[in-house]
């Protein structure tokens, strides 16, 4: 293990892992801090926490536990990954976690950079842009948990930490690694411990990556990870094609979809209109105590020999609203998640070995029901969604798709991509 990463949420962890794999690193993502060390060839590990919006004290404790596990695994460099919209409040958690990791590592300087130009997140003069507008005009000012009302990241981070926050401007980033390192030195001499870094293109991230070769701790969104694998390439001859290799797995194929996002609605329609076998789960029948899980499995299992099956609760906003009015949004969510997780469990018990799950929360519930602790990250199906393989004696291929990701033909394309048999 060369690079040890701590991500503050699950889909963000996959996004980071995906960027490292694209750079030629062999990556495993763990769900929480594993009890044992991993076996097998791996260059980078991403520990996925759920620490973005929990109390700062808990986020610090979980991040330190992850750090300790990564250190024991032999990692040389560490990466704290947060959202590319810098989701946080004055109470945390980016500042407190960064401070705690720096203290634990005895490290006196780091960066903070959520830039991910491919996803339209850029930092210029210390201000974060989402698309063409400042962060605080992007809709993020209305976020229910982490409203971002200021786009100036130096100010935002300074409110969360006792450490002095500074800035590396675009003029230095554009000049390359030496200029960036020189700026780090000046900032350090002025007592700065965390530097917000400007970046507006992938080339900027590659230049920045070079300058981070000997930095013990990097804090960033997933974008900065694009520039890091080049630093390890010499020693380990990383090769992208090897990095995406997953174990050969044969078995039935299935899709479980609990996402009601626009993209997923389109994907479900596309699958059905191309003669895909599909079963719609009815949340109201579920709430009435009807045996919907058993019914779905009784429908699905005999059909597995004929091709992939889709079980979905995916519905358009009007239908979802009607269900939520009857059951309450949170209760409806948990009920459907639990049912889909049981269905996924039943499908795997019936011999499914390639499973697509649509929905971030739904994926969390499914992974938990399947008892999966770690995933090896494979080739990307669509940006941000790779095939993965569970680690263990009988690997399962999984594609965990958060709501709005993927093209309309995502389900068909994922199976066409030819992982597994
Ligand atoms: P996304 O990634 O699109 O946000 P999630 O799985 O994270 O998808 O969230 C979708 C939520 O909606 C889940 O809690 C799920 O259980 C719930 N849900 C799914 N289908 C329905 C439905 N038909 N009516 C109400 N809620 C639903």
Q: What characteristics describe this protein?
A:
binds adenosine-5'-diphosphate, 16 helices, 421 residues, 15-stranded mixed β-sheet, three-stranded antiparallel β-sheet, alpha/beta, globular, single chain
Task: Describe this protein's structure.
Helix 2 (56-72) runs parallel beside helix 3 (94-105) and helix 13 packs across helix 14 (329-349). The longest helix has 21 residues, at 329-349. A hairpin with a 2-residue loop joins strand 6 and strand 7. The protein is 39% helix and 21% strand. The protein has 16 helices and 18 strands. The strands form 2 sheets. It has a 15-stranded mixed β-sheet, with helices on both faces. The protein has helices at 10-22, 56-72, 94-105, 153-158, 170-175, 177-189, 202-211, 229-236, 240-243, 262-273, 283-287, 292-300, 317-327, 329-349, 360-369, 410-416, and strands at residues 3-7, 27-31, 44-48, 77-81, 110-113, 121-124, 127-130, 133-134, 165-168, 194-197, 217-220, 252-257, 277-280, 309-312, 352-358, 374-382, 385-390, 397-401. The chain is an alpha/beta fold and 421 residues long. The mean pLDDT is 94. The chain binds adenosine-5'-diphosphate. Adenosine-5'-diphosphate binds next to helix 13, helix 14 and helix 15.
Shape: globular
Rg, alpha carbons: 22 Å
Bound molecules: adenosine-5'-diphosphate
* Major sheet: 15 strands, mixed
What's the end-to-end separation, in Å? 30 Å
Give the strand line-up of the largest sheet. Answer: 9-10-5-11-4-1-3-2-16-17-18-15-12-14-13
* Overall strand count: 18
Low-pLDDT segments: none
Number of helical stretches of at least 4 residues: 16
Computed structural class: alpha/beta
Strand content: 15-25%
Mean pLDDT: 94
Percentage of residues assigned to helices:
25-40%
């Amino acid at each position: 293990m060369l690079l040890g990463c701590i991500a503050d949420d699950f889909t963000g962890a996959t996004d980071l892992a995906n960027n490292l794999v694209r750079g030629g690193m062999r990556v495993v993502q763990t769900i929480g801090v594993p009890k044992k060390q991993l076996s097998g060839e791996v260059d980078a590990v991403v520990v996925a926490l759920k620490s973005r919006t929990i109390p700062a004290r808990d986020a610090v404790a979980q991040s330190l536990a992850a750090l300790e596990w990564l250190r024991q695994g032999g990692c040389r460099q560490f990466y704290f990954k947060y959202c590319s919209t810098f989701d946080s409040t004055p109470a945390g958690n980016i500042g407190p976690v960064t401070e705690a990791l720096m203290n634990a590592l005895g490290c006196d300087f780091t960066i903070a950079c959520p830039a991910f130009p491919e996803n339209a997140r850029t930092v210029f003069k210390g201000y974060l842009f989402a698309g063409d507008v400042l962060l605080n005009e992007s809709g993020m000012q209305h976020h229910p948990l982490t409203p971002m009302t200021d786009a100036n990241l130096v100010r935002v981070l300074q409110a969360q930490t006792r450490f002095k926050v500074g800035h590396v401007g675009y003029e230095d980033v554009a000049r390359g690694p030496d200029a960036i390192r020189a700026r780090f030195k000046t900032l350090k001499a002025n007592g700065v411990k965390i530097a917000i870094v400007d970046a507006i293109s992938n080339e900027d991230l590659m230049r920045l990556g070079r300058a981070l070769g000997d930095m013990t701790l990097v804090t960033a969104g997933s974008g900065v990870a694009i520039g890091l694998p080049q630093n390890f390439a010499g020693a380990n001859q990383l090769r992208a094609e090897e990095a995406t290799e997953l174990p050969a797995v044969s078995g039935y194929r299935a899709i479980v979809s609990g996402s009601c996002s626009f993209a997923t609605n389109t994907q479900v329609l596309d699958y059905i209109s191309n003669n895909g076998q599909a079963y719609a789960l009815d949340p109201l029948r579920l709430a009435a105590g009807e045996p919907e899980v058993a019914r779905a499995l009784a429908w699905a299992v005999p059909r597995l020999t004929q091709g992939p099956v889709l079980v979905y609760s995916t519905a358009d906003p009007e239908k979802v609203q009607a269900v939520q009015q009857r059951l309450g949004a949170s209760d409806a969510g948990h009920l459907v998640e639990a049912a889909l997780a049981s269905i996924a469990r039943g499908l795997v018990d019936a011999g499914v070995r390639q499973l697509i799950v649509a929905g971030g929360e739904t994926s969390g519930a499914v992974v938990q029901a399947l008892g999966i602790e770690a995933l090896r990250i494979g080739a990307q199906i669509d940006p941000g969604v790779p095939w993965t393989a569970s680690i263990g004696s009988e690997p399962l291929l999984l594609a965990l798709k958060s709501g709005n990701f993927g093209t309309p033909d995502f389900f068909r394309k994922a199976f066409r991509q030819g992982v597994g048999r």
